[in-house]
Amino acid sequence: MDLLPLILPWTIHLWTRFHVTDAPVSQLFYWDINMRTPVIGGNWKMHKDHAGTTSFFESFRPLVECSRHREIVICPSFLDLDRAVTATRGTRIQVGAQNLFWEKEGAFTGEVSGPMIKAAGCSHVIVGHSERRRYFGETNESVLKKTVAALGAGLIPIVCVGEHKKGNAEAVLMEQFRDGIRPLANGQFARIVIAYEPVWAIGAGETAAPETAADAHRFIRAQARDSFGTEAANSVRILYGGSVKPGNAKSLMAQPEIDGFLVGEASLDPISFASIVNL
Ligand code: PGA
Question: Relative to the CA of 41, which ligand 1 atom is closest?
Answer without folding.
Answer: 9
